[in-house]
Amino acid sequence: MTFDILLALAAFCLVTLFSPGPNNLMLMASGANYGVRRSLPHLSGVAVGFPLMILPVGLGVMQLFEAFPPLHLALKIASVAYLLYLAWKIAHATTPKEAEAGSHPLSFFQAAAFQWVNPKAWSMALGAITLYAPGRDIGSILWICAAFLLIGVGSALTWTTLGTAVRRLLADPRRLQVFNWTMAALLVASMAFVLIA
């Protein structure tokens, strides 16, 4: 992969990883409800889980969708169902003090597994493979994974920290409830990617 292509890939990663989407909205809500430290497993699962998804997608999962189109419909149904479940959890999240006692953010494995039903993640993975590894060679796919991992850590940390920054404003349970319902509504709205793709 040439330096010019790596720069283009880095720009693609920056734009797609830092723009709002299901992962970033959930990380922001997690930061607001649990703080950065308690959200580290969730943050790590997003940052590592997405690059780990790209590898099998680039090496052959794309071909399954091309060969068997009903799989695409099954993915849409699973994505919508899981996003609705997560939106419900965000909307009904407890106050930060209650969160410290009982509830918890997504675990590393839950956040990593979420990538497989995240419509934005699929769009990003398929777009990156198509643009930067059209021959689907392992070297190019590994470069894509590395770029998403490096930039993804910064993105996940930024969105979680942003949530933590608004946490002080959300000390009032009513404001927190409005914030959580807004994040849940935005998460549901992000399903437009699933329904129009």
Secondary-structure-based class equals mainly alpha
Helix content: over 70%
SSE ordering: HHHHHHHHH
Mean pLDDT: 85
Beta-strand percentage range: under 5%
- Strand tally is 0
Largest sheet: none
Overall outline: globular
Q: Spans of 5+ residues with little confidence (pLDDT < 50)?
A: none
Instruction: State the end-to-end distance.
Output: 29 Å
Computed Rg: 17 Å
Number of helices: 9
Give the domain tally.
1
Can you put this structure into words, describing what you see?
This protein has 197 residues and is an all-alpha fold. It has one domain (3-196). 83% of the residues lie in helices and 0% in strands. The protein has 9 helices and no strands. The longest helix is centred in the first third of the chain and has 46 residues, at 22-67. The radius of gyration is 17 Å and the shape is globular. The two termini are 29 Å apart. The mean pLDDT is 85.
